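Replying to the earlier thread about multi-chain prediction with a worked example.

Input:
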Amino acid sequence: MNEFLLISGMAAATMATRIPLLVLLSRRKLPEGISRALKYVAPAVLAAIILPIVLLPDGKLNVQINNASLLASLVAVVVSWRTRNLLLTILLGMAALLVWRALLPF
Amino acid sequence: MQSAARRAEFLAGARDTFPLLVGAFPFGIIFGALGVTSGLTPWAAAAMSAFVFAGSAQFIAVGLVAAGTPTLIIVLTTFVVNTRHLLYGATIAPHLSKLPARWLLPLGFWLTDESFVVVAKGFESRTVPENKRWYLLGSEVAMYSNWQVVTWVGIIAGQAIPNPRSWGLDFALVVTFIGMLIPMIKGRPTLAAVLVAGAAALLGNRLPHQTGLLIAALLGIAAGVTVESAWPEKTSQQKGRE
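Result:
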């Protein structure tokens, strides 16, 4: 494995997704319809990242009591919904995961 | 603009990013630890955080390195996993109109999920373009510095942590993202975007190289727009007229 090639290739691939539209679209006005649609980018991407990790550990649906990630996620959802406090959500979510794992016999 | 005002915006961006730094802490440590146990040299793991700076792509890459995947495939996978950043660039670009390349190139290089979400909210209350660029820069520099430090901690601690993935610390990313997502759900259109994107991601989970993620995001966006047309969310202006 040539590490120099690997890292330059990955760096180029990442920049190719982050820079071009930022530069192109900062020079012209977006059509109204597009900018309306872009409001939903963040929530849609976050939901699409989170749900498979939590509900499909190892690629299979697991909604049972031994799915510590699911329980901890529910705790995080409730904390975030009630408090809107990101730091508290992270800390209590992680605490729930560690406690649940310690309590479960598997 | 006064330099004091610039500094205030830069610091505001960094401050609003603080909880995400905490969330990235365990994630970065695990990356560093996995990097060196997957067969990368410590310098390569550190260089990946310094020059690629894309947490989830880096995680996937070290997994592929450990599996002996050819370099070209790892690079292509990195591109596909990061395609969501195209959407971030498009969303943020109108706020950075007419900036010179010396601003746009670094702001683009440093644009992560975390900084995107922070500024998408922070830009709502900022109308002066100058303020927006300094606010974004503050958020990005905070994320970048933190990521370098925690990567090094992971690299150094890596040899001492047996099987770092089993600790569940990578779950910090999930609770961080939950804490960013829930406050965004303010009405039916966003809720529809979240539900459709989430369901589509579950169904498309088997698609190779996380292409399911991008398709799910696009379907979620379409759902949000559709529901918005059917039940428009009330803007403050409309509320005032009622």
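The mean pLDDT of chain A is 89.

Feel free to reuse this layout for your own posts.
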